[in-house]
Write a structure and sequence with these properties.
The structure holds two protein chains of two kinds.
Chain A: H1 9-12, E1 20-28, H2 31-41, E2 59-64, H3 66-71, H4 76-80, H5 84-88, E3 119-125, H6 128-142, E4 148-157, H7 215-218, E5 222-231, H8 233-243, H9 247-258, H10 276-280, H11 305-309, E6 328-334, E7 351-358, H12 361-373, E8 396-400, E9 407-412, E10 416-426, H13 429-437
Antiparallel strand pairs in A: 1-3, 1-4, 2-3, 5-7, 5-10, 6-7, 8-9
Helix pairs in contact in A: 2-6, 2-13
Chain B: E1 10-11, E2 14-22, H1 28-39, H2 43-51, E3 54-62, E4 67-75, H3 82-85, H4 89-98, H5 112-119, H6 135-152, H7 157-160, H8 167-171
Antiparallel strand pairs in B: 1-2, 2-4, 3-4
The chains are: A alpha+beta, B alpha+beta.
Chain lengths: 440, 175
């Protein structure tokens, strides 16, 4: 059984709708102040068993980077028990995960990519007043502590459309996790072993994944990849317009690139036209597989965004085990909508805060980034990247299988740019107490 | 910090991966029998289809079967897929052959990558005749060539290939 009362609620709890959220990053200059902050903060963190925090529907999460654990004085032996990828941090892994060119750490917003990002707090609520309440509680945890400095703040809010900036319903695909009440959005997928997402449990290989030591620190923890992704909405619209002769064709191309129509209706179930009722139906909009019905991708292209992020049973007759590369994903939009019809960028930052949660940065997040998002060897097209968020450079290609002749989209630019990110460890509640106490 | 850098030279999309291991004393006969047995298993053809990124691989016993060489060429990186292979026939093959070798922890063991890395030797020179083609692209190319030959065998092909859009195909038709 999952120790729900020790797991941070944010691991298992899907994004609310509507949502507002704030991410705060801190640098810990003084070990004692850092521990004091954690001590004050821990009671605010809701567990998965009791998903509501003192502020009601609103809740908080806290996570630490490798540098942060080190700044708190975690013993060297324990630090070394974390996986090398986590120890290195996202910036040092940039080439491995396709953060090259404009996505590279040299271009990131500060403090991302520096050694100063130590501790992250996320606060989420259904509305601004309740968010402010959580933030106020959080503030008490770090005020008057000179050895802890807030170095970054990012506010997020659901857009008035209820969709992300490119205009698509998002947050649909979530895996089911065995032993939790997280049922997942695809009834055709068996629940995954909890060890794929939370440390201390059996994973899909029937093994206990390696866990940081001592056990009190590692158990019920997860890893997080945090990314601030800028979306170039104007460029996306211009590209669609340039590649099509009418609005209907634009929508068709956009759907082929994503794998869903803007309403959220999947091409796998509605290949010819958008079906907003299907898109909004949470019981049906993720109820599909690929292999038996659409092996060649005439409905949903193998290279489309959603088929890359989760190929489902695409590898039915191949060695690749999709269940070993699943992600819990949370996306939160930031910045204002680019008004409909505008084709020139207004210079305002907008995009999505992408959060991965799982038991392995390397086998889950990095694998998907390097093998499925930023190349296409797995679909027999090595040079093709995710048409939506791959690191394309103006020469990107996307194949749309179609009878009798496949269609090629060419000259794909980059629509999504990484503005910075970091790897964090999201400890269980007992581990937070352990860290706050500073034992040994 | 544990070793992160992987070993193996690249040529285009292809990587070589070579490991040298010591056969456990007294296991010389058993290791040879195991590998021979696998070489006769029809399942191995399916296995290489399932991998889809492995160009070729060989097991070589030498020094009176006291040492085992495993040598392979594949698309991309081997270490990322070790976890995937753990659930397949390849796991069975690796486990049964390498279990006769010193220190082999088993393919499902978290230490498996370290074991491979510790026993790997990077090539000094590595070259491939088709460095830019992945296994799946080669399979597709062969299927297209087969289809093309079928077209050429049709008496109507000569006329059909005159269409301007088919000029690149016509240029390939004479030989």
């Amino acid at each position: 059984m999952l120790e729900m009362n020790d797991i941070q609620s944010g691991v298992l709890r899907p994004r609310q709708a509507p949502y507002v959220a704030t991410y705060l990053l801190f640098r810990i200059d003084d070990r004692a102040d850092g521990r004091e902050m954690l001590k004050r903060l821990t009671p605010l963190i809701a567990s998965a068993a009791n998903a509501t925090s003192p502020a009601g529907e609103a809740w908080a999460m806290v996570a630490l980077s490798y540098q942060g654990l080190s700044a708190l004085g975690v013993p060297q032996k324990s630090l070394e028990s974390f996986p090398p990828v986590f120890q290195q941090g996202m910036a040092k892994r940039s080439e491995e995960i396709g953060d090259i060119g404009e996505n590279g750490p040299d271009h990131w917003e500060r403090p991302f990519g520096s050694s100063e990002v130590h501790l992250a707090i996320a606060a989420t609520a259904p509305d601004r007043p309740r968010l402010e309440q959580v933030l106020l509680h959080e503030k008490r945890s770090y005020q008057e502590l000179p050895g802890v400095k807030m170095i970054y703040r990012q506010d997020c809010a659901q857009l008035p459309t209820g969709r992300e900036h490119f205009g698509f319903r998002d947050g649909i695909g979530q895996p089911a996790i065995e032993g939790s009440d997280l049922t997942g959005s695809n009834p055709q997928e068996a629940p995954l072993k909890a060890g794929e997402f939370v440390l201390g449990y059996l994973d899909e290989a029937g093994m206990m994944p390696p866990m940081p030591q001592p056990e009190v620190l590692g158990r019920n923890g997860s890893y997080v990849a945090f990314r601030k992704l800028r979306q170039d909405v104007a460029a996306f619209r211009r590209y669609l317009e340039a590649q099509s002769t009418n609005a209907k064709e634009q929508e068709w191309l956009a759907a082929k690139m994503v794998g869903r129509w803007r309403s959220g209706a999947p091409l796998a179930l509605s290949p010819e036209y958008d079906d907003p009722e299907l898109g909004a139906n949470l019981k049906r909009n993720n109820d599909f597989l690929y292999y038996d019905d659409d092996p060649k991708g005439f409905k949903c292209p193998p290279g489309s965004h959603i088929r890359r992020m989760n190929p489902r049973d695409h590898f039915k007759h191949e060695a690749v085990q999709v269940n070993r590369h699943r992600l819990i994903r949370r996306g939160m939009s930031y910045g204002p909508l680019l008004p409909e019809g505008v084709l020139e960028d207004d210079g305002i930052e907008r995009g999505i805060i992408f959060i991965f949660v799982g038991a392995s940065l390397e086998r889950q997040f990095e694998f998907v980034q390097s093998e499925w998002v930023n190349q296409g060897t797995f679909i027999g097209k090595q040079d093709e990247k995710d048409p939506l968020n791959g690191s394309n450079d103006g020469t990107g290609v996307f194949t749309i299988p179609r009878q009798p002749i496949r269609q090629h989209l060419i000259g794909l630019p980059q629509f999504v740019t990484n503005r910075g990110g970091e790897y964090f460890f999201l400890p269980g509640l007992r581990a937070l107490q352990w860290l706050a106490e500073g034992t040994p | 910090m544990a070793q992160l850098k992987r070993k193996g030279l690249r040529d285009g999309v292809m990587t070589e991966f070579t490991i040298f291991t010591k056969v456990k004393s007294g296991h010389e006969k058993a290791v040879r029998e195991t590998i021979v047995q696998h070489s006769q298993n029809p399942r191995r053809r399916e296995a290489i289809q399932e991998i889809g990124t492995l160009h070729e691989a060989r097991f070589v016993l030498f020094d009176n079967d006291t040492r085992l060489l495993f040598c392979s060429s594949f698309d991309g990186t081997w270490d990322k897929y070790i976890d995937d292979f753990a659930a397949t026939y390849i796991a069975n093959l690796f486990d049964s052959a390498f279990s006769h070798c010193e220190g082999y922890p088993g393919i499902k063991d978290p230490g498996i990558k370290d074991w491979f890395m510790a026993n790997a030797q990077e090539a000094v020179n590595y070259i491939c005749a088709y460095p830019d083609a992945t296994v799946k692209e080669i399979w597709k190319s062969l299927a297209v060539e087969k289809a093309y030959q079928k077209v050429l065998d049709n008496p109507a092909a000569e006329q059909a290939l005159q269409a301007p859009a088919l000029k690149p195909l016509l240029e390939q038709a004479a030989t």
